[in-house]
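Posting for a labmate who doesn't have an account.
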Amino acid sequence: MNKSKLVQLVKHLSPIQKDRFLKYLNSPYFVSSYEEAQHRTISFTKYLYHEIATDNEDIASLQKMNVWKILFPTKPYNDTRMRQEMTSLTKELEKFLGIEYMQRDGEAIDVALLEYYASHQHLHPFFKGTLNKIQRQLEADVTYKSSAFYFHLFKIQRAVSSFDSLQPILEDHINLQKTIFSLDLYYLISKLEYACLWVNYHQTSQTKSLIEESLILEISESQAYDEYPILKIYRYTLLILKGQFEAQNINEYIELLKNHLHEFYPKDAKTLFTYAYNYLIVSINQTSNEQMGNQFRERLYELYIEVGLRQNILYVDGKLLPNDLKNIITLILSLPEQGEWSMKRKTQTASRFLQKHQHLILGTEQEAYYDYNLAHLQFYQEEYLQSIQTISSIQLSNIDYILAARRLKIKAYYELDTIDELEREINSFRTAMYRNSIEGAEITERVKSYNMQFIKLLKRILHPKTFKNNTRIQKLMDEIQETKLIADRKWLIEKLELMR
């Protein structure tokens, strides 16, 4: 009996729910049974409350024979009857939980009431008052405009259409059109949302897709839907996932996210943010067009600051993940030094951001994460010795930080032109890559490839034949641009440019 559905449901109840369920059972309106049966059901419930309160996983008293003695003290045990009692109480408890859940959804109750008034002509005088109340709530309380919002709107307008159809004179059919349009919006937004989830999943699955994404994209492109940002966001996201997004739309896409991502439920907003972030990162790493790459970096900065942070998507219990901190600092310092983004402004922005989050880094290695980002800032300010000293004093367990710190140290030795130390660091780093681990942290094949490309190309840059050899330099630059996965691409290109 301990593993029965009934016992598991009772264990699930909070103290407040237990009290409300007893009140529910005491109400003859909800329990259509004889008084004796109702009394027995209540006794059964109280007995379960008492026994399960011990939190014992193997409650000896919860044997059917023992429970039977409580319910039917003068009758011989009957297993069929005992099962019936358990089934009956389970049904009542499930009905109660269903009512509890529905009562939390005030919108659903209001719409149900609206539909009830619409379907009973003698109650029509109350219809408009209820409708006005719902419309006021929509204007004042709506936070999230997901597909569920448009389905809610459809049900309201369906009730209005039902009400209008029973009126003596029909002035027009405008509300019928609104009803159909709301249903279209619900359908399209839901279809786009699930298509995004499917396409993202399908990238790692061989399952044949039954979703006609192209048809949904074509329908959603209609000008009739231009004023619905949620639909446009999902449409652009689906294009990104299908590899059909046109880069010239990136500014509009980021503006839509900045202005409307807060209208999505937090979980959905986080997913959409991640899709946009991944697209920009891949675009930055793969583009060979410097101007386009800089544009992507600027859009990524906007996405991080104005969406991820200001809309509280990236914070976890008020704290920032170490990788997000590193990515933001790296991004600020890699922004193009043109227009408003001077070297001084980038340094100040990165420094302020780092200071602000010094004690807001998630995890137990706050000081080490802070020191790494400080070393990165020192490197950017050409304080190479200080950067090496800062890196050498920290210990990290995060593989992304470990590898970034080792590359930063290599770059600092390169800038200082200390060949012996540079060669030692390169060889040590390369050995760790071959061993597939560094400082106890495992290195995946993808990460290994990403970092080995950096080492391979840096060694070729260091080769004596490269200096002032424009043909060799150009060949290396083309190779760096064409390599899809490579660490510190921008820095490698800058070093080659200086060697012409």
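Reply:
Got it, the structure tokens are right above this. Strands lie at 437-438, 441-442.
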